[in-house]
Amino acid sequence: MARVYADVNAKMPRSYWDYDSVAISWGVLENYEIVRKIGRGKYSEVFEGINVANYQKCVIKVLKPVKKKKIKREIKILQNLSGGPNIIALLDVVRDSQSKTPSLIFENVDNTDFRTLYPRFVDYDVRYYIFELLKALDFCHSKGIMHRDVKPHNVMIDHAKRKLRLIDWGLAEFYHQGTEYNVRVASRYFKGPELLVDFQEYDYSLDMWSLGAMFASMIFRKEPFFHGNSNADQLVKIAKVLGTDELFEYLDKYDIELDAQYDDILSRFPKKPWQSFVNAENQRFVSPEAIDFLDKLLRYDHQERLTAQEAMAHPYFAPVRTAAAQPNSQNHGS
């Protein structure tokens, strides 16, 4: 059971979380024109677009054929989170009258690819943007929603404006206490151990592992930090850092049985000290507070991980909190 926000949906009217019964009000397709393709995912193709009614730039996410229920879930979640801090804004939902293909229209963010952007960051930038991401996560968790796909590709940053948006809510789901969820969520390098050992009763803390994996790659300049070449190998890569004794303690606590495929590939690994990842190239990002923060996120036991709210109160973010308290601060780093 989640340590926080466990009963949010239980206290809400059914219409809040029962996305299957959502009635979509379709906007006018002709209001939007595609400018250029900017990305594609498993479930969609993404374009830069223009709203011809007001000449505003927008992002058009054209959904691939997928269960109607999944589309309704994404729309309902985006509507529930509308206006929240650093949550991408859904502006409209349209569909082609011929093909019936739905498209989601989003606010535009002038994003720089993380592989280009992160290497340009100074220490303060990392603190600032992780804090901004935590605002989005605490907000969605407080609304009873797990994102389930936190990774750099889903964090848009307009560095000139120091603006961050958490995008792609296509895998997000409502948290209900005691519910068993699909473990085939998140992207391999950011999957929490609970997904890799097939523990289905997970909660918001899954997002905190993904954030931790992302943070580790930022401070140690190692992308991705846990680089598995399959789901099974992903757990091995994690065990080589967090140790096997600790893994078995976790499995025992939750009465989890490991798949037989792990018998041959999981030998005994000691826990690696975080300090051993520090080198001349990344040391400017590493401080005792950074290591302490990381250590409190990357825990096998999901109940031990910091919540988003606890994370925001961590000493690592003291400089960000101080800057935010200054009048007219733009919170500038580099």
Automatic annotation (TrEMBL):
Signal peptide: none annotated. Catalytic subunit of a constitutively active serine/threonine-protein kinase complex that phosphorylates a large number of substrates containing acidic residues C-terminal to the phosphorylated serine or threonine. One of its GO terms (molecular function) is protein serine/threonine kinase activity. ATP binds at residue 61. Belongs to the protein kinase superfamily. Ser/Thr protein kinase family. CK2 subfamily. It is an enzyme of class 2 (transferase). It catalyses: L-threonyl-[protein] + ATP = O-phospho-L-threonyl-[protein] + ADP + H(+); L-seryl-[protein] + ATP = O-phospho-L-seryl-[protein] + ADP + H(+). SUPFAM superfamilies: Protein kinase-like (PK-like). Heterotetramer. It holds the Pfam family Pkinase. This is Casein kinase II subunit alpha. Residues 32-317 form the Protein kinase domain. The keyword Cell inner membrane does not apply. The keyword Nucleotide-binding applies. Its EC number is 2.7.11.1. GO terms for biological process: DNA damage response; regulation of cell cycle; regulation of transcription by RNA polymerase I; regulation of transcription by RNA polymerase III. It comes from Capronia coronata CBS 617.96. GO terms for cellular component: cytosol; nucleus; protein kinase CK2 complex. It is found in: Nucleus. Keywords: ATP-binding, Kinase, Nucleotide-binding, Nucleus, Serine/threonine-protein kinase, Transferase.
